[in-house]
């Protein structure tokens, strides 16, 4: 049986909420128990990192519990994104007000977002009861541009290194970008960013355990393997193309893992309950600690990556919604959907 409230978060890969929108389409009534689910709260925000994912979990769960929701009725499904991402909090209220009052034209030709026109988070309300309506009203914010500038209460969380368009105030943007002085990218490993990643995950874990909230975490794709002990670099995740089809080929299993590079990261690694994570593995191909990409590529190939150039690397190109439906139905939420046998 499903929990009453499912909270999902992540970066642009954290698109699990839409699967629940059409759950009856891929989960027949005779096989599954639908009673129970009232709300799905979608907090995923494009290009964000682990700081955002952890803060969005803590702040939203705290609001729910403070306003009368039982921790036993909440399930958190968190997708953690790239280790190299470094989120910045914009909490000065003058700057927050500046963002709130801006009129921003979204560069990707999806229209003009006028002041206070975007609702965040997206909430799927299945019951529309007075209680669910009160929760929706409690959580939703009218804000600037939620996909890339997510706002939590009275502050924004922004990844200035990954946004596809300029921050509303160029002077502020330049200052913050200057402060982000660590090189980033798929081929670079920075110790402080690795530590931040594990600290954020550990913080979310301990908060949810303290509150008695069930959860499951997963990765955008493998963030822990293929590291070089000496240089601090990491081999880039790539697909191998044979006759226009894409395959996994890199040896995750026998590579250097991130916790072998730094003693602090190893300590944090040993403090995390990895039983609460879903990883994709294919030991025959030496694939361990995989995420959404590895699952999609290994099980479906290029057909779930839309109209892509067959010569391109599939990692980071975002699989179709069908992959998320499959993960929800057959892996991450399988035990919650299946009916309990009654004797």
Secondary-structure map:
Elements: E1 5-9, H1 17-21, H2 23-26, E2 39-42, H3 50-66, E3 74-80, E4 88-90, H4 93-100, E5 104-105, E6 112-113, E7 118-120, E8 122-125, H5 130-139, E9 141-143, E10 151-152, E11 155-158, H6 170-179, H7 191-211, E12 214-219, E13 240-242, E14 245-247, H8 263-271, E15 280-282, E16 287-290, H9 292-299, H10 321-332, H11 334-337
Parallel strand pairs: 1-2, 1-3, 3-12
Antiparallel strand pairs: 2-8, 4-11, 5-6, 7-9, 10-11, 13-14, 15-16
What does this 3D model show about the protein?
With 343 residues, this protein is α+β, with helices and mostly antiparallel strands. The protein has one domain. 31% of the residues lie in helices and 17% in strands. It has helices at residues 17-21, 23-26, 50-66, 93-100, 130-139, 170-179, 191-211, 263-271, 292-299, 321-332, 334-337; strands at 5-9, 39-42, 74-80, 88-90, 104-105, 112-113, 118-120, 122-125, 141-143, 151-152, 155-158, 214-219, 240-242, 245-247, 280-282, 287-290. Helix 3 runs parallel beside helix 7 and helix 7 (191-211) runs parallel beside helix 8 (263-271). The longest helix has 21 residues, at 191-211. It is globular. Residues 105-110 have low confidence and may be disordered.
